[in-house]
Amino acid sequence: MKAEIITIGDEILIGQIVDSNSAYIGQELNKTGISVTQITTVSDDKHKILKAISEAEKRANLIILTGGLGPTKDDITKKTIAEYFNDELIFNKDVYNHVKNLLSGRGITMNELNSKQAYVPSTCKVLFNDLGTAPGMLFEKNNKIYFSTPGVPFEMKFLIKERLIPYLKEKFTFDSIIHKVVMTQGIPESHLATIIEDWENNLPKDIKLAYLPQPGLVRLRLSAQGDKEKLIKQIDNEIDKLNKIIPEAIFGYDEEKIEFSVFNLLKKEGKTMSTAESCTGGNISALITSISGSSEIFKGTVVSYSNEIKENVLGVKIKSLEKYGAVSQQVVEEMITGILKLMKTDYAIAVSGIAGPTGGTKDKPVGTTWIAVGSKDKIISEKHLFGEERNRNIRRASVTALNILRNFIK
Amino acid sequence: MKAEIITIGDEILIGQIVDSNSAYIGQELNKTGISVTQITTVSDDKHKILKAISEAEKRANLIILTGGLGPTKDDITKKTIAEYFNDELIFNKDVYNHVKNLLSGRGITMNELNSKQAYVPSTCKVLFNDLGTAPGMLFEKNNKIYFSTPGVPFEMKFLIKERLIPYLKEKFTFDSIIHKVVMTQGIPESHLATIIEDWENNLPKDIKLAYLPQPGLVRLRLSAQGDKEKLIKQIDNEIDKLNKIIPEAIFGYDEEKIEFSVFNLLKKEGKTMSTAESCTGGNISALITSISGSSEIFKGTVVSYSNEIKENVLGVKIKSLEKYGAVSQQVVEEMITGILKLMKTDYAIAVSGIAGPTGGTKDKPVGTTWIAVGSKDKIISEKHLFGEERNRNIRRASVTALNILRNFIK
Question: For a Cys-Cys bond, which of A182, A389, B226, B332 suits B370, CB 3.0-4.6 Å?
Fold first, then answer.
C-alpha cells in the first residue's frame, strides 16, 4: 500500500507553522508497513485541493488529508471533499451528540460554530474524534481509501493512531519495512562518516544507511524491506559491530532522546541528579522534566544567570569569578560542588558558556562552553567550542552535557 | 512570481524529521512578495526527484529544492539535477578553496568526502555557502529559476536569505503581499471566534482572516494583496479596533513570542525577573534565556522538583505543603516570596501543577496548575485547568504565566 499525505493550509505555505503532522503520520504508517511516497502541501483553496486529490489518487491508494476541518470560518476542506465525491453534507446526530458531550465535559456551551461540525458528507464513514469537535471522515472509492482529519496535532494523532490504523489493519495485511535508528552524540557528521567508513562499506546490500544530523547529534538510520525476522537480526548484528567502533557516542536507538537515556540509567541505578545552569538557562532541566516520572530521578535546578546568584546561591567563590571569569573550569566545578550540596543529589551537571551572539572575546569566543559533571567523589570537566548561533549553542551544550553525564555514570 | 518548494528526503516521508525548512523558505519568500503555491516532499530517488521538478515547473516559475547536498553517501540531489539539465559535474576551484578554508578555520583537515563538494554542474551559478561545505546552485532555463540548497537548516537559511533573495530582488520587482499576525493568549479558539465575531464580519472584504491555534495561544492572521501603503493602514486600523475588544489577550504581533513581549517590557522599565518552577521544570527560564541580551532582565531560576527543595531553597513552609499540597495557592505564593528574596529581582513567576500523565486526583486532576506572579508589594495567583498531555500542559502553563506577568507589569 502506497500512501500520500495532502496537507491543507495557507499557514504552512507562508511558513506560519511547520508541518509536523506529516512527520507523525509518516512514522505511524511506516510502523504499520505502509510507505508514504509523497507529501503535498496546498493552500486553503477549493481548486488546489481538488487537483491535489485527483493527482495523488493516480499514484497512491491511501490518501490522507489533514487540516481545514476546524470550527472557524477559514476552513473549507469538508465542503471540498463532499464536492469531490459528488456528495452533500448531512446532519449526523451521533456526531452532534459527541460534540455536545465533549464540550459540556469541558464546561462549554455549544455555539453555532460547534454545531456545524455535526454536518458530514453522506457517504463518509465517521471516525469519531474523542479529543475534539471535528470528526475524522473516511471514504472508499475504486479500491482507494481517502481519510480526512483535522489539523490540530493532538486530535490528528488520536484519529490516525486510534482510528485509521486499526481500521486499515483489520482490512489489509502489510509487508514489513524495518527502520532502526542509532542515536549518536559528540562526533560531527563528516568525521563520523570517515570513522565508520569500513563498517558502512561492509553493510549487507539490502540495508540502506542514512545520516541525519541535528544540532549536537547525528542519527544513523538503517533501513530494509523484506523478511522481518531476518532483517531485524541482520540489523542488530550490524549495530553490535558499530557499538564496538563508537561506544561513547551511541546513547540510544530509534525515537530515544538523550534525556531519556540519562533518565533510564538513573532510574535503573536508583540515583538522582540536579543541574546548575548558566548559558543553557534551564534547558537541560526542561529536557529532563519533559519526561513523565522524572521526579523520581530529578530534584531541581538553579539557573544562575548572574554572577551574584552563582556566588550567593551556588557558593561559587568570588575569587574564582574574578580570576578566571564565569566561563571557566574553576567556576563550573564549584557550581557542581554547590548544586550537589544544595539539592543533595547523587549526580549533577553544571554548564557555563557564551551562548552569543554577543559577549565573546578573543580568548573566549562566542560558543566557548565549560561543562562539568560530578558526584561527591569525582568531578570531570570539558571545554567545548560550539558555533555562532545562540539557540544551537544552547541545544548543543545541553545534549553534550547529558551525554557526558551518561558516560560518567556508566 | 509563483514558487514551489521540493523537499527531498526519505527522513521526512518516514517522519524521522519534520520539514521546518519549507516554513522558513515560505516566510522569507512571502516577505519578498513571492507566493509559495505548493510544497512537495519526495524520497531520495532519482526518478521521483526528476518527476517532481518537471511537474513543479509546469505550475511555478521559481523552483527551490532542499536536501540531498551533504557530504555523505545517501545524498543524490546534485547528480540528479545535473541529469535534469543534461549537464555534467565539473571541478570548481573556487568551491574547493572555499570548502578548504572553511574546514581549516574549524581545525579540520579536508577529507575525500569534503573534496567531492567541489564538483558542481557546469551550467549552474554557484551561490557560496559561507556556513557549510555544500554549495547553493542556481540554474536558469526558459525564464524559470531553479535553486538547490543543502537541507541543513542553518546553511539553508543563510543561502535563502543572504544569497537567493538578494539575487532575485536584483533581477525582478515584486507585488506586495501583506500579512499581519495578532498574537493572543488566554482565550480558546472557538470562544475567541464568538467574542470577535462582529469585528470579523465587518472586516474590509480584501482582508482575509485566519485562526492559527497553538498550545496556549491563538494567532490571528490578517492577509491582503495589493497597494502596500493602503493595506497596512487598513490592517492597522482593524487591529486598533481588536485591541479594544481583547486588550489583555493581545501580547504582540507577527513573529513575536510571548517571552519577547515580557523581555521588552522589562527592558523598557529597567526591571528584573526570576522564576520558581515546579511543573514547568525550567521551561519558562529556558524561554526567557533563549533571547539574546536576556541577562539584562533575568537573574535566575530555582526548579524545585521536590518538596524538599521548595522548603529548603525557596523557604516554602512545611505546614503549607502538608496542609494544602504542593499544587496550591499558598505554595505558589510562598514560592514567589522565596524566589524574590533569593534572586533579589523586581518581579517573579511561580508555577506548581500536575503536568501528568500521572499524579492526578479527583480534587486536583492532571492539568491543574497554580500560577503566581508578584513583586515585593503584591502577589496575584490564578488556578488553571489545562489538558491531559504533559508537554502541552508545560507549554500552556509557561505561556499563561508569562502573559499574567505581562499584564501584571502593565
Answer: B332
